[in-house]
Design brief:
The chain has 627 residues and is mainly alpha-helical. The chain is 38% helix and 3% strand. The protein is built from 24 helices and four strands. It has a two-stranded antiparallel ribbon with strand order 1-3. The protein has a two-stranded antiparallel sheet with strand order 2-4. The relative contact order is 0.14.
């Protein structure tokens, strides 16, 4: 988004948007009284005005990855990759059987962000529908300009509905500007919505351009999203075609050589050790390299810069993704000779750990699957020492130890000579993390959490893995293996050679290695779960169907197989056991959305209160919504 557009964005937003939400429809549909001369009719006069509104959608999509208690965290902890590790709280999504209900707090950084997805995606849909509905009331210089704007609008709407249909299943479809009170929304079958998205994204992939500023929607991003939609529909040949158009189109390529630079500021601690993280993977994820023109791998990028005062947000990746290795009165790391607190996350210490690793809080606590089991090649750059950090690479740095403990400046140890664990909380304090990816220095903040930097939303490596999955569903394991190897070998892993061993687990493992904190993990696990139910294909000898999807599904079986916390009897320091049920394959529809829809029925998902009140979902889209 260009800075010059920001004032126009906010002026238009104030006057145009009618504040449609499911949460409080009855309150917000009051007679509008424009505060300025900028009415919809006078504001949407050209492509620049419409693009200004659409640019605001980038901010909402971006914010899934940014801030404390980020929505991305919810996607991760509902998977086999992570659990919520900040276990000194009673309320977060730990025992999901208790805490995840339609009436629970579903939109709080301290709990979960299920409600964020519902509220924010529908807000984007509302805003985009204004643009779509008024596309032919606006003057454009030619057909290309009009269709590029419309294609961009379709991308944002399709992105939101793709996510909603995978997270929540059947949801209301709104395809036009709503200019009057409406309290009679109905759920629409997810497959019907996906077919509409496919048509819209085929249009977008045709008319959107790759010759746009970083942060804007590209043709490549459209092809990537179209591939996800094609896969969700089980149209595997179409998914191969749409992904191949991106991969083989001559615009994008996997970065196999170093580009940009990694200056000496790899962090004070690593710098003092003489460590230089200068391989191709480290450069690809270096916080200053993501938006470079030389980076041919990025399809769609979230932009957050210090100079974008009104539309910036901190990443917080150094807080969310790393352990609470520092000390508090409740959580302590000790030296083997019993001294503590043994570590300090205060900046300016003689041994400066905080400047390099931030003040982690253990939110996205990696499972054994993500920390150890998926790493099948010791040469993998994504898991090599100091790209991937472990607590034992840190040192005892608390100034109070100097001169009092022989361990000052020595590496952390998990146990003493007698086998006693040297931390009060192994969940929150002790796990490995991908430092090469989450390092984001924050000189403005004394508690270094992760500053204002860009972040990948779509990257070509994922497009390869989507195509690999499509080949696997078609039974072409050799071509699936070739696409997986394209990603693996860039990280210096040996290629797979036995195509007969390639399965959906191979694809998911590579996604977990390559796309941590980029892919929406639960969304993709759900998409795959629907496909197992649709195709009848087996997983570990089990088959699935839609008739009992809420009680038997691939999502649950995969998480139970790989996640070493849920339903394993693990209890955190607050006394809460990690639990999950098969019906958590779908999020609950927030009760406020259902209750406020007084003249219609929004269906609730199986396993949650209100499911018995469901009515058949719509099997077609109203022609008035087919915009």
């Amino acid at each position: 988004m260009k800075t010059s557009n920001k004032k126009l964005i906010y002026t238009i937003i104030l006057a145009v948007f009618l504040n449609l939400t499911f949460v409080n429809c009855s309150e917000e549909y009051l007679s509008p009284k424009p505060y300025s001369i900028f009415t919809p009719e006078s504001a949407f006069v050209d492509a620049r005005a419409m693009n200004a509104v659409l640019s605001n959608c980038n901010i909402a999509i971006r914010d899934q990855f940014y801030g404390d208690g980020t929505p991305m965290l919810t996607e991760l902890i509902f998977s086999e990759v992570c659990i919520y590790g900040q276990d000194n709280r009673m309320g977060p999504a730990t025992n999901m059987n208790v805490s995840i209900t339609p009436s629970s707090n579903l939109n709080d950084a301290r709990y979960n962000r299920i409600g964020w997805f519902w509220n924010e995606f529908y807000k984007i849909i509302k805003d985009v529908n204004v643009v779509i509905s008024r596309i032919d009331q606006t003057k454009f210089k030619d057909e290309n300009e009009r269709n590029a704007v419309l294609g961009t609008a379709y991308f944002y709407r399709s992105y939101c509905y793709y996510r909603l249909t995978q997270q929540f299943g059947d949801v209301p479809f709104i395809g036009r500007e709503i200019a009057e009170p409406k309290l009679d929304f109905s759920s629409t079958k997810r497959e019907v919505i996906l077919e509409k998205l496919k048509k819209d994204m085929e249009f977008a992939a045709k008319w959107c351009s790759d010759n746009v500023d970083r942060g804007r929607v590209t043709k490549g991003a459209c092809g990537h999203l179209l591939t996800q939609i094609n896969l969700a529909l089980g149209k595997f040949d179409d998914a191969i075609a749409s992904s191949s158009a991106v991969i083989d189109g001559g615009v994008y390529s996997l970065m196999r050589q170093g580009f940009g630079a990694i200056p000496a500021e790899t962090g004070t601690f690593l710098k003092n050790l003489g460590v230089v993280r200068d391989d191709v993977v480290a450069r690809l994820h270096w916080y200053q390299n993501r938006a470079l023109a030389a980076n041919k791998e990025v399809l769609y990028l979230a932009i957050s810069r210090p100079e974008l005062l009104e539309s910036r947000n901190r990443l917080y990746t150094m807080r969310v993704c790393s352990p609470f290795w520092s000390n508090s009165s409740s959580f302590m790391i000790y030296t083997p000779d019993g001294k503590g607190p043994a570590t300090s996350s205060n900046i300016g210490q003689e041994i400066q750990l905080a400047e390099t690793f931030g003040r982690g809080y253990g939110d996205a606590r990696g499972t054994n699957y993500h920390q150890r089991l998926i790493w099948d090649d010791q040469n993998d750059l994504r898991h090599k020492k100091y790209n991937w950090m472990k607590p034992e690479y840190l040192v005892y740095n608390n100034p109070s130890l100097k001169g009092k403990s022989a361990y000052y400046g020595k590496n952390l140890e998990f146990k003493d000579a007698k086998g006693n664990v040297l931390t009060t909380d192994t969940i929150m304090n002790w796990f490995g993390w991908p430092h090469y990816k989450v390092y984001a220095p924050d000189p403005e903040f004394t508690q270094v959490n992760g500053g204002y930097y860009d972040w990948y939303i779509y990257r070509l490596a994922e497009t390869y893995l989507l195509r690999a999955e499509a080949y696997w569903w078609k039974g072409d394991q050799a071509k699936a293996m070739a696409d997986i190897n394209a990603v693996r070998t860039r990280a210096l892993c040996a290629p797979y050679t036995d195509a007969g061993k390639i399965d959906i687990g191979t694809v998911l493992d590579e996604r977990a290695r390559e796309l941590f904190y980029e892919e929406m993990r639960k969304t993709e696990l759900n998409r795959i779960s629907f496909l197992f139910a649709k195709t009848g294909k087996s997983y570990n000898g089990k088959t699935y169907s839609m008739t009992d999807f809420g009680s038997k599904n691939f999502f649950y079986d995969r998480v139970m197989e790989k996640n070493d916390f849920y339903n394993k009897g693990v209890i955190n320091v607050s006394g809460v056991e990690f639990k999950m049920s098969p019906y958590h394959v779908l999020f609950p529809i927030p009760q406020a959305a259902i209750s406020s829809n007084s003249k219609g029925v929004i269906n609730q998902n199986f396993g949650y209160d209100g499911y018995a009140n469901n009515v058949p979902a719509l099997t077609s889209i109203d022609p008035k919504d087919d915009k």
